[in-house]
Amino acid sequence: MNASNFKALTASAFFFGVCIFVAGCRHYKHKSPGAGATPSHTYTYKVRGIIEQLPAAGDSSRQISIKTQAIKNFIGPDDQPSPMPAMVMDYSAAKSVDMTSLHPYEKIEFTYRVNWQKGLNRISHIHKLPAKTILDFHSNATGAATGNMNTMPKGN
Questions:
Q1: Residue 101 covered by a domain
Q2: pLDDT score of 79
Q3: Does some domain include residue 155?
Q4: Is position 5 within any domain?
């Protein structure tokens, strides 16, 4: 076999291999995201807590610091259960959320939406709870006691 025939045979084999690879890829059926993949759907949670801090006047960040109860059914970015214990955390509120009537240390329930793929996590709705509503900040995400996490001001 001369060099010219060898090059032609090698090029043909390479072209044939690429065709097989492309044909195989075209028929590959993509599966839904699994471990390590980013889920494309939005998770919605109803969360209760106490407002710790609101944005300062003129602050356009819409960040609210809230002491929340545990979110036992939280799903993490790997699409796996990732329960969150009771904690104080900053949340972003959507522009549609009216915060003008909210005050620090009020008890609230809010709708929290998370879409890991789109990088969205924000409060989409807030409403005040009656002052006598009992909130449990002593349980972690599995329901077991975690010690004294109650930092509510005296008298409330």
A1: yes
A2: 86
A3: no
A4: no
Parent domain of 48: 43-128
C-alpha closest to that of 121 among 90, 85, 152, 100: 90
Cα 155 to Cα 149: distance, rounded to the nearest angstrom: 16
Percent of the chain with pLDDT over 90: 51
Which pTM was predicted?
A: 0.66
Q: Tell me if 120 sits within 8 A of 149, measured CB to CB.
A: no
The DSSP element (H or E) to which 5 belongs, if any, is helix 3-26
How far apart are alpha carbons 94 and 96 in whole angstroms?
5
- Is 128 in contact with 106 (CB distance < 8 Å)? yes
Predicted confidence at residue 3, as pLDDT, reads 54
CB 73 within 8 A of CB 141: no
Strand 120-128 versus strand 107-115 pairing type: antiparallel
Q: What is the CATH number of the domain that holds 119?
A: 2.40.50.320
Within a domain: residue 11? no
Q: How many residues does the chain have?
A: 156
CB 83 within 8 A of CB 106: no
> What is the number of structural domains in the chain?
1
Tell me the pLDDT tens digit for each residue of 42-80. Answer: 999 999 999 999 998 888 889 999 999 999 999 999 889
